[in-house]
Design a protein that fits this description.
The structure holds two protein chains of two kinds. By secondary structure, chain A is an all-alpha fold. Chain A is built from eight helices and no strands. Chain A folds into two domains: 89 residues, NADH-ubiquinone/plastoquinone oxidoreductase chain 6, subunit NuoJ (Four Helix Bundle (Hemerythrin (Met), subunit A), Up-down Bundle), CATH 1.20.120; 40 residues. Classes of the chains: A mainly alpha, B mainly alpha.
Chain lengths: 171, 359
């Protein structure tokens, strides 16, 4: 039933956009916890889109890692933060600049890959590769081994950085 | 049954799925109600008391001999409890954050009920597979949904806007994330052996090669203990911890909203029991008998479901038994066990299994 999957696509895409908008610019509430919860809903809607692309593994991991673990820690931090003090803090020009560059770069990458994709020719092999966990593992550890290892080093750097920052009196 | 054949496969699928969902939902709800009764009875026996033995609706008088016996067993107690929860005043303190206060109980219950969807609770009944959703990433789905369960408790703590519930919510989020890692790592060796994430395949592997609990005892112990932490049961009930946090995250809740937290906890217990039966104890199979292969006969199909429910009941009893036998851990001990004992042991277990499989 192609119509039904189309309907699901529009439902999930619409929800992702709506919740994404409510995450950053909620007209009703400026509460950071509300923003975080809408981000969770955005992540779940994106997982729905992955499902429609037959990427079951990716969808499950998206919910497990982002919605289930990362966002819980976000909530954890938000609840313990002194919100009033955070509101007093001014935005730095440098931060805004770096953020804008990162967003522009991501937008560029997405535009290029969206334009290079040919609609109506979903390669059967890709579908197999993203759907099946064993296939995904093979692709990840053969074809994409180097990017994968670089990413894991990046995560390690972040982890070491966090430990360094949390120990204030480290000599 | 004949008239069903004229329906299109899609309609049949929708019809059977809806039926399975309804039946499983009914069984889990009844299971929750009676798990509470068993909890009260077992705690009573352990503490040398009698437990609920008075509830007797009017029709008991018409049941000879068995009637009074059922009353003494407390069989009718869950009905009285349910009625009490519904009729009690639903009090909302005026300092709470209303939206989250209402959402939190629902967010606790929904994931708990959704996890049972991928569990194969029987072989086949007629030609229908006895699992609601036969997913290839079954176990990952479960972990994903279970990880969402923490939001209910965290938001309940936040919404209550007072310090004890808040501390309970904070504790719960740290505890559940820590033990999720240990739990996730503990089951990896199973997939190394079975080469599949599908729970049906895992049951089939165990029917052919023997139960996982014998091959992976370390993984089983870690999973079992992590399950206690994930369901917030004693000895890991620090989010509730009535002696220091009054009642933790559900201090401000009353009536049906409180009942939903209760329901969520017991539904989680049922889901993790079902998970342990499926992953470690052969699911619906019973070795050494005819019951270890799927069969087209309805009777054997029903027996398979019976075997599954019986195994699940054993785990439920263990959950309840442990609660009344062990004292609560201290918070630093809890974190210590999770991060510095279980995670290294689970990692070593993965490495060892991988080496054995590779050889």
């Amino acid at each position: 039933m192609p119509q039904f999957t189309d309907l699901l696509f529009f439902a999930f895409a619409g929800m992702a956009l709506l919740f994404g908008f409510l995450t950053v610019a909620n007209p009703v509430s400026r509460n950071p916890v509300t923003s975080a919860m809408f981000l969770v809903l955005t992540i779940i809607s994106l997982a729905g889109l992955y499902l429609l692309l037959h990427a079951f593994f990716l969808a499950a991991v998206q919910v497990l890692v982002y919605a289930g673990a990362v966002m819980v820690l976000f909530l954890f931090v938000i609840m313990l933060l002194d919100i009033k003090e955070e509101e007093r803090r001014r935005l730095k020009t440098f931060t805004v600049g770096v953020g804008s560059v990162a967003v522009a770069a991501l937008l560029g990458i997405l535009t290029v890959s969206a334009l290079s994709a040919k609609p109506g020719s979903p390669a059967g092999q890709t579908r197999l590769a993203v759907g099946d966990t064993a296939e995904l593992g093979k692709v990840l550890f053969n074809h994409w081994l180097l990017p994968f290892e670089i990413l894991s080093v990046l995560l390690l750097v972040a982890m070491v950085g966090v430990i360094l920052l949390s120990k204030k009196d480290l000599k | 049954m004949e008239s069903l054949q004229y329906l299109s496969p899609t309609t049949q699928f929708v019809l059977f799925s809806a039926l399975k969902i309804l039946v499983v939902f009914g069984v889990v709800m009844t299971g929750v109600a009676y798990a509470v009764l068993v909890e009260r009875k077992v705690s009573a026996w352990i503490q040398d008391r009698v437990g609920p033995n008075r509830t007797s609706p009017f029709f008991v008088d018409y049941i000879p001999v068995i009637g009074p016996f059922l009353v003494r067993l407390g069989i009718f107690q869950p009905m009285a409890d349910g009625l009490k929860f519904m009729l009690k005043e639903d009090f909302t303190p005026n300092y709470v954050r209303k939206v989250y206060f209402w959402l939190a109980p629902a967010i606790t219950v929904i994931p708990a009920l959704m996890t049972v969807a991928v569990i194969p609770f029987g072989s086949t009944l007629g030609s229908e597979k006895m699992v609601i959703a036969d997913l290839n990433v079954g176990i990952l789905y479960t972990f994903g949904i279970v990880s969402l369960g923490v939001y209910g408790i965290v938001l309940a703590g936040y919404a209550s806007n007072s310090k004890y519930p808040f501390l309970g919510g904070i504790r719960s989020s740290a505890q559940m994330i820590s033990y999720e890692i240990a739990m996730g790592l503990s089951v990896v060796p199973i997939f190394l052996l079975t080469e599949s994430l599908n729970l049906g395949d895992i049951v089939k592997y165990q029917a052919d090669h023997g139960w996982m609990i014998l091959k992976q005892p370390v993984a089983f112990v870690i999973f079992l203990i992590a399950a206690f932490a994930e369901t917030n049961r004693l000895p890991f009930d620090l989010p509730e911890s009535e002696t220091e946090l009054v009642g933790g995250y559900h201090t401000e809740y009353s009536s049906m909203k409180f009942a939903l937290f209760f329901l969520g906890e017991y539904a989680n217990m049922i889901a993790s029991s079902a998970m342990m039966v499926t992953l470690f104890c052969g699911g619906w199979t019973l070795p050494g008998t005819l019951l270890s292969t799927p069969s087209s006969s309805i009777l054997v199909g029903l027996l398979h479901i019976g075997v599954f429910l019986a195994k699940m009941a054993v785990f439920m009893i263990v959950f309840i038994w442990v609660r009344w036998m062990l004292p609560r851990f201290r918070y630093d001990q809890l974190m210590d066990i999770g991060w510095r004992r279980f995670i290294p042991v689970a990692l070593a277990n993965i490495l060892l299994t991988a080496v054995v499989v590779a050889l």
